Amino acid sequence: MIAFTVNIENVSAPDDHAERPLLWFLRDRLGLKGAKFGCGHGGCGACTVQIDGQAAPSCVTFLKDTAGKTVTTIEGLAAQPDNPVIRAWLAEQVPQCGYCQPGMIMTAAGLLAHAVDPSDREIDIAFAHMLCRCGTYQRARRAIHRAADQHWNDAPFPAAILTKPLPIPPREFVFNPWIKIAPDGIVTVVLARSEMGQGVSTALPMLVAEELMVPLDRIRTEFAPADHIYDNPALGRQVTVGSLSVKTSWLPLRLAGAQVREQLVQAAARRWNVPPQDCTAQEGQVIHPPTGRSLGYGSLATDAAQLTAPAEPHLKSPGEFRLLGKPTARLDLPDHVAGRTIFGVDVSLPGMLAASIVMPPVFGAKIARIDDTAALAMSGMRQVLAISDGVAVIADDHVAAMQAHDSLKVEWRGGAGAVSSATIAERFRAALSQPGEILRDDGNALHAIAAASSLAAAEFDTPYLAHAAIEPMNCTARIENGRCDVWVPTQGQGMAQEAAARAAGLPLEAVAVHTTFLGGGFGRRSASDVVTQTVEITKAIGKPVQLLWTRGEDMHHDRYRPASLSRLEAGLAADGHPTSWFQRVVGPTLAGEGIDMPYDIKNVRIEHVVDDPGVPTGYWRSVGSSQNAFAIECFIDELAHRAGRDPVEFRLSLLHASPRHRGVLALAAEKAGWNGRVSGGRSRGAAVYYAHGGWAAQIADISIDAGGAIRVHRVVCAVDCGRIINPDTVVAQIEGGIAFGMTAALKAAITIDHGRAQQTGFHDYPLLTMAEMPEVEVHIVKSGEDPSGVGECGVPPVAPAIANAVYAATGCRVRHLPIRPADIAANAQNRALT
Q1: What is the CATH number of the domain that holds 320?
Q2: What is the pTM of this model?
Q3: Residue 381: beta bridge partners?
Q4: Residues 546 and 474 sit within 8 Å (Cβ to Cβ)
Q5: SS3 for 776-821, per residue?
Q6: Low-confidence residues of the chain, pLDDT below 70?
Q7: Whole-angstrom distance, CA of residue 222 vs CA of residue 231
Q8: How many Å apart are CA 820 and CA 824, to the nearest integer?
Q9: 55 and 106 in contact (C-beta within 8 Å)?
Q10: Which residue range(s) make up the domain with 539?
Q11: Strand 775-780 vs strand 756-757: parallel, antiparallel, or unpaired?
Q12: How much is the pLDDT for 826?
């Protein structure tokens, strides 16, 4: 036996498990789910634990290497009273989706155990292999320094301590689809939207708590089942996309809270035999001021739930808000930092088997032949099963399933084997000469361009991009007694239910969808392919199954952000003022979305030539806005320089009809000190864009080394997303959006060769790291408008702001993403030669 210690408990593993990863022993044998599977090769850090005080990736640490040693997991660290790292993580409100946070915390704790006051350089080295797709690096860095100093008085949330979750009430009274109240006064808010780091599991309860007059710490949340009552009213589906959660819940949830408040007041008034108008609600109680009597909501719930909800309850005016608009600690963060959050990979059912899947390497290929001899000979293997879009291997646990996955031999036929990045570029180039669907047609742009004093033109291309959420695609399913239950981290409960019903051959009402927390979504989890696969497997073998994709399958079978090619032309007056604008975008359907051209130009024509080469595409954070912002904002910057005008002043002069664009740009320029001198060999670029409910402007400060490598030092962002629910979440989402956009601008691309994606993991699809994260400042425009969206608007301006700073530094225009250092160096060399 292999004997060692885990969180002060003595444990042992069989000798024949010596070559098994520690990660799966912790998760499957000990039930310690805090360490997460992210990649399987030590490249993301989500599985990090401490071994004898040293941070180590448990996915590549074998059980034989733990003999006689002490292993500490996030559960063990969180059990330590007032642990300074845990406390600092809460004080700085570090997590977003939370999936990678246990690994980050264990890394930070390991660093601080050996470096009492670590420098930023030491932090960067320790976190070199820690990836956070949500971009929490800036806050994590602050938390490490705070934990080292253990100073709390100036913390954003100085009273933050690790709290236990509110228990699930054994009995609750249902008032409406969103609100339930238990006899002890605990209020349950049912979340119709998925939580993937955007903070809706706090923002939406805040809307209820404000009108219901109940303390936020007396609220617990649960995710809604698949039901049309929870459909997003803007989309007619139960789906979480487009930064619509707060926007579409702003009035309905406040109304629901106000209705319940008035029902409670009425119930108390009846019990006391007094007029309802003589009673008030506050802090989870109804009070009768004339007599000083009070009753808690829990004691009133049984009577109040029987009353008819008022159709038009009194809603507070913004001046009466006590909670909304104030920085508020997120309700889900204590579970995130303690490793208690249940993500899709953490679901466990009695008798559950593990599955992995081998999918066709070439898009659209079909199974020709399966050689499962080696796979079935492996220990723990149960079955190899061909399903609709791949070959599943089913085993006793995920270790066996993944090993069998790697040994399975499948021959494929057909598919899009002729498709490559080169052929896609050629067909997009050919399509660029064709007319497209007219998306906007103001004045007569083509005539005005022909008559202009001069013409400016440029072309911009962007690649396919993967979502690369740290939690790979997964789903758990059980079919028994004519019912199908699905546990899945999904953005689309309705679509997941429909997919499961089709795969199970059951009516829709026989399928229940249990939504877990999402370890990143970014649009990818709105698709239900993994649900179909899991239910097919479960139906075939007759046992509960958890399907977990490998990182390679996750990368090869994403629904990518589409590639695109754009041509922009502008007719210019003698003074350089644009009199006309023409834009043609080539690419799949989504490439034509999110085109925001706000500038005051009389003649504008925008077209989209739909061209789909057969590479699977889908929603990606900010969708087409991320590509079209790059083209539009780089081109407008070019026009400014051609006119001999300051880029910010030039934009402002063309934004009089777009006051919210103008407002964020002016604020960002002011806070960045745009008119001041940039020192230290740095250059600066600007961009402004609207996407999915949010107006954002960014000023990027960069430097470029002799090899053309870009270092982004600082990004100042101003954002207008209407009235704010939780300011700290808005700031966090912009910080994360900037990190997400920087990966697209500087690092990542999916390239296609012979019909298959070439990238297989984080080693060849690199994400932004802690060391590369710039200082980010976020400034929120005060607004009286209704809340809109903030989860995606931070992404689009990043790439053009950096690209425009590259021009300021080198005089070279960026036309392609990601920005390649070799191109910058070559352009600089060519300019020097000429």
Answers
A1: 3.30.365.10
A2: 0.97
A3: 395
A4: yes
A5: EEEEECCCCCCCCCCCCCCCCCHHHHHHHHHHHHHCCCCCECCCCH
A6: 829-834
A7: 16
A8: 7
A9: yes
A10: 344-413+473-548
A11: unpaired
A12: 79
